[in-house]
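Course exercise 7: structure representation. Students receive a sequence record and must write out the corresponding structure in token form. The form below is the worked example handed out in class, using Amine oxidase domain-containing protein (240 residues). Read each field label carefully; the graders check that inputs and outputs are placed in the correct fields and that the protein name is recorded exactly as given.

STUDENT ID: A-19
EXERCISE PROTEIN: Amine oxidase domain-containing protein
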Amino acid sequence: MKEDISIAKAIAIVLERNPHLRQEGIAHDVLQWYLCRMEGWFATDADAISLQCWDQEVLLPGGHGLMVRGYRPVINTLAKGLDIRLGHRVVEIVRHWNRVEVTVSNGKTFVADAAVITVPLGVLKSNTIKFEPRLPEWKEEAIRELSVGVENKIVLHFSEVFWPNVEFLGVVSSTTYGCSYFLNLHKATGHAVLVYMPAGRLACDIEKMSDEAAAQFAFSQLKKILPNAAEPLNYLVSHW
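STUDENT ANSWER:
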């Protein structure tokens, strides 16, 4: 297998070998916006996206859908009849030949015939759960080598709709870092709501801000394309 390179490096090589493909002005900015959308899809910068593997996935058939009421109705339905324990932080999982013991932070231990571990990659990387016996080396290596992407949502709620009835509103720039896009929730929900969705290095930088500053930054991006945009009534900032 040839050595892998990033999407960003591959594009740079192509443009270096084919100068006539270089874009200028608005065409260049639009190309950066499409790369920004790719970064949003993978929740990382183009210089971290694999050229060999970026398209190694199988998309499910059918169109996109939006859970207008959120995922809570789905979760509540699936949870019916199940014994779910909230507030139980797992600290140790011990596997015996005929049972599994799961110990939580308050010292209580649950015993079962088997256990399915579905904690997020970030939890596994933090090593807050002790496995006994320890995980196989190939699993530990995978946990070390895999990265966690960053994409957050900044929800802006307005008193009325002042933007076009489209699915996305895009802000183009000469760099992917300066590009951004807003998801138009009014189209699906009827509410005057836009969702700013930063990813990669931009999302990491925004996470360092206060919620108020993050919302103001998102609003400043919106004003780049809609200078007369009204101030939002309120906002909600995720921290994923």
